[in-house]
Design a protein that fits this description.
666 residues, alpha+beta, Cytochrome Bc1 Complex, Chain A, domain 1, globular
Length: 666
């Protein structure tokens, strides 16, 4: 079966190949073994697909494989798919089928299997360790599968126990035999989806049949697993020293000062058994980069992230980190640069090693750069054909007219400004001096146990004592009232985006009041424009508050609706905002907002993400720790008059930007 379909509003080229099989059970240990074999097989194949995607000549942006329930849960299927680059559907299909055939002829390698076993073992071990901290929604999904498909639910701890017995017994020959069982001529289906527009080439059914036929006789060689067993960091580091330690009893964190000037703030918790979160920042960011180098700065960390670290390119690094639960990436934002990531306690040292390498040994990789730019160019082509993406792009450009540093969906000309040497130079400059960096850690650790690792990997980072800060490159929002209609797409549906940007007076009371105003507006829009007027399904209210480089507040309201109701619903939104400006919220709505915020905080207090974000924000915005511990009292103390004053000061009905998405006129 082959199905080919095109759509005027499709945003990407997609190909799916599936091989149907009888429905398998998931009830016994034997069934569990079959499931693990499928995870090993598809995991190794996905690694190969990912490796190809990191080459400039790859015909697809990404590709993946999976095995499991298909459509109405009465069949299983082995599925491979790809989001292809423009006019490369046929080439992508040929690659997918070639990799299938390569496995059938030559199988997987022993080293691939060893790494994938480590990866699966690590995933199941983490789930077992977090079993008593598992969120309810995860149990619910298991109950649904049990009810609908009679799948077994032994629990993460028993699954890990079973896995430790089963995994060593699975041989490479067992997995290589699966290819012959899964990939056959009499169970094949194929779907191609593509945009319907000029210049887009879509293969015909005859052309697809030819590609399938040729894949069976194509000349292929066995996959070569290039992998080097060597440490991430070569040579010996010179550890720094912890020269000061301060405890904050009120909030429960400890601040360490290292001999190279690095500050490390530690918040030990027991919310998760197997999680440590990390973030870091240093002032400066891309504000210190001139406009003519901004595009290189904007993508510098993504380029470095895809280039590997130290002696390992990205493909080698991914292989090196198989079996480890680590995510760590550098970033460069408007006024700061830093890191975001997480690991398990077991892999914490490896994560710090990567941080050290991203500081001291970022890589220049021309191949990775070309692959990244090729992917960006193709993704932007697809995104810009999407009416909703065009709407967002227009909205923000109208909010900040003429701002050169605003890049939502870059143009080909803007992407052409990205230069590898320039990006690497900017990156190295931003991460040359660790002396003004602040690191934040939250999770399951003891300070005594991780302090030596912090001194070794963070204390040895270079320090130049540059004492930097940012420049004010912030854009000025459009003045007065801006109304714009964008005509894009043919579906009879609209979107409305309303932005109210203003200067702000930064203090904790104003921050609290604006967050409560956002909560009240959310409550009222659900009550009025969704339930009473039946005009929208899910209105969104967002609030952006920034203190640096200049204090600003931006309230944004977004909703989808019928093209006929855009004006009526906009008027209703302003009606609710003006009520708060004129009289403040009602006592009932104020209490609802307080209850919602206090309940959210009650949940947040048991999340590592909250503590990491909150403590970092406290340092960055120079707020008092006392504001964290007195949140409940401060919320309860907010009055109607406080809300009215804040709304009058920071929400101006004579200063807003409104963009409406409408279907194209016939």
């Amino acid at each position: 079966m082959i199905a080919i379909t095109t759509d005027k509003e499709a945003t990407d080229n997609f190909v799916l190949v599936f091989y149907k099989h009888p429905l398998s059970a998931d009830k016994t240990l034997g069934d569990f073994r079959e499931k693990i074999m499928a995870e090993l097989y598809t995991g190794m194949l996905n690694n190969r697909f990912n490796e190809i995607s990191q080459k400039p000549e790859s015909p697809y942006v990404f590709a993946g494989a999976g095995y499991g329930r298909f459509l109405s849960r009465n069949k299983d299927a082995f599925m491979i798919n790809a989001m292809t680059k423009e006019n490369q559907i046929d080439e992508s299909l040929a690659v997918l089928l070639a990799e299938n055939e390569r496995v059938k002829r030559f199988g997987f390698t022993a080293t691939e299997l060893d790494r994938q076993k480590e990866e699966i073992m690590s995933q199941y071990e983490k789930a077992a360790k977090e079993f008593d901290k598992t969120e309810s929604r995860n149990f619910c999904s298991e109950y649904v599968s049990n009810y609908l498909s009679e799948d077994a639910i032994p629990g993460a701890q028993k699954q890990f126990k079973y896995l430790k017995n089963i995994l060593p017994e699975i041989k490479i020959t067992d997995l290589n035999d699966l290819a012959k069982q899964w990939v056959t001529d009499n169970n094949l289906g194929l779907v191609v989806m593509a945009p319907e527009k000029a210049g887009v080439e879509v293969p015909t059914q005859d052309e697809i049949l030819t590609i399938i036929k040729d894949s069976k006789t194509k000349e292929l060689t066995a996959y070569v697993d290039n992998f080097r067993e060597e440490p991430l960091i070569q040579g010996q580091l010179q550890p720094g020293k912890i020269i000061d330690s301060k405890d904050n009893k009120e909030v429960g964190f400890t601040e360490l000062t290292l001999s190279n000037g690095v500050t490390v703030v530690l918040k030990p918790t027991n919310f998760k058994n197997d999680e440590i979160l990390i973030s870091a920042y240093s002032p400066g960011g891309n504000s210190l980069v001139p406009d003519n180098e901004f595009m290189s700065a904007n993508y510098a960390t993504q380029i470095i992230d895809q280039s590997g670290a130290g002696n390992f390119d990205n493909i080698e690094l991914e292989k090196k980190l198989k079996g480890k639960n680590i995510e760590i990436s550098p970033y460069i934002e408007d006024v700061k640069e830093g890191f975001k990531g997480n690991s398990t306690p077991k892999d914490f040292e490896t994560m710090l090693q990567l941080v050290n390498l991203y500081f001291t040994q970022p890589r220049k990789d021309t191949t990775a750069f070309k692959a990244f730019m090729s992917q960006m160019e193709n993704q932007m082509k697809f995104m810009k054909s999407n009416p909703v993406m065009t709407f967002y792009d227009t909205l923000f450009k109208v909010v900040y007219p003429g701002y050169k540093r605003l890049v939502i969906f870059p143009t080909p000309a803007q992407l052409g400004e990205v230069n590898l040497d320039q990006a690497l130079s900017i990156y190295k400059d931003r991460f040359a001096d660790a002396g003004d960096f602040r690191f934040f850690l939250a999770g399951n650790f003891s300070i005594d146990s991780i302090s030596p690792l912090i001194a070794k990997y963070l204390g040895s980072l270079p320090s130049l004592n540059r004492n930097e800060t940012w420049k004010n490159t912030a854009p000025k929002p459009a003045e007065g009232i801006t109304n714009l209609t964008v005509y894009k797409g043919t579906d009879p549906q609209s979107m409305v985006g309303l932005v109210m940007p203003e200067k702000f007076i930064w203090n904790e009371n104003n921050v609290l009041c604006m967050n409560m105003i956002k909560e009240v507006i959310s409550i009222k829009l659900i009550e009025v424009i969704r339930e009473k007027m039946s005009g929208v399904y899910s209105p969104q209210v967002m609030l952006n508050l920034d203190q640096f480089p200049a204090p600003t507040v931006q309230l944004m309201v977004m909703f989808g609706c019928s093209p006929k109701t855009t004006d009526k619903l906009t008027k209703a939104v302003f009606g609710e905002i003006n009520k708060i400006r004129k009289s403040g919220p009602t006592e009932v709505d104020l209490n609802k907002a307080k209850e919602a915020m206090l309940r959210a905080r009650e949940t947040d207090l048991e999340k590592n993400e909250f503590w990491l974000r909150k403590i970092e924000s406290m340092y960055f915005n120079r707020d008092s720790p006392h504001n964290i511990s007195t949140f409940t009292e401060r919320v309860n103390a907010v009055t109607i008059e406080n809300m009215k004053t804040a709304a009058t000061r920071f929400l101006d009905p004579k200063h807003y930007i409104r963009v409406v998405l409408m279907p194209e006129k016939k």
